[in-house]
Amino acid sequence: MTTKTDLLLSLLDGQPVIPVLKIDDVAHAAPLARALARGGLRVIEITLRTDAALDAIKAAATVPEAVVGAGTILNAHQFHQAVAAGSRFIVSPGLTPQLLDAASASPVPLLPGAVTSSEIMAAKEAGLDFLKFFPAEQSGGAAYLKALASPFAGIRFCPTGGIAANNARDYLSLPNVVCVGGSWSAPDALVKAGKWDEIEELAREAAKLKVV
Ligand code: 3PG
Q: Which of 6, 118, 163, 194 has a CA positioned 20 to 30 A from the CA of residue 127?
């Protein structure tokens, strides 16, 4: 296990679900981070899918009880922007040589996506042993991920994409899964309406899921 994997796992501290967030209004970032943390989901991923994302990361990073990472990082430039905004970990749907160079030169851990055997082997060669499996449901789901456990012993995954309260356990019961990611604990409509209590409740339910 690499030191940066250790760091990422210690940030997670057994949290079974990482909320994957798309924030349109920077004013939502801090109250959303607080609501999720109150519900037990301290570690959150704010995706660079909106113009407000980098400012949202900055705002959420001021919430002491939250551990804020950036998601949907597609290149080295975004990696640096996200780190400068205060991200404590970086999530990417895949891995490129340039992104790998940026991550290798940084103390901030990268959780890169890998689905195929060759992608997993390339990540492993680069010293990365904790990977995102995305898009999980569309790529073959829990059955596919289970089949990777034997050839890729020692590689652990955070599956995301199409995972929600109804199927999270299918993944969390696999030996090679550390946590799952998903947007279900902070649905767009509740965020836009500022329904922080409802989000806190969804987070509380998600936080009860067990990594087996
Ligand atoms: C991600 O980037 O991890 C996914 O887009 C989250 O997928 P979901 O919205 O299906 O949970």
A: 163
212 falls within a domain? no
Can you tell me the distance from the alpha carbon of 197 to that of 30, in angstroms, rounded to the nearest whole number?
14
Q: Is the CB of 181 under 6 A from ligand 1?
A: yes
**Residue 123 placed within a domain:** yes
**What's the CA-to-centroid distance between 197 and ligand 1, angstroms?**
22
**pLDDT attached to residue 1:** 53
Could you give the CA distance from residue 69 to residue 108 in angstroms, rounded to a whole number? Answer: 10
| Per-residue pLDDT, 211 | 76
Tell me if the bond preceding 135 is cis, omega within 30° of 0: yes
Q: Give the range of the structural domain holding residue 50, as residue numbers without chain letter.
A: 2-203
Q: Whole-angstrom Cα distance, residue 46 to residue 70?
A: 5
Of 183, 184, 188, best ligand 1 pocket probe by most atoms within 8 Å of the beta carbon: 183
Specify if 78 maps to a domain. Answer: yes
Q: How many domains, the chain?
A: 1
**Catalytic residue check, 65:** no
The answer, yes or no, to whether residue 212 has pLDDT greater than 80, is: no
| 208 within domain boundaries | no
* pLDDT tens digits for range 150-195: 999 999 999 999 999 999 999 999 999 999 999 999 999 999 999 9
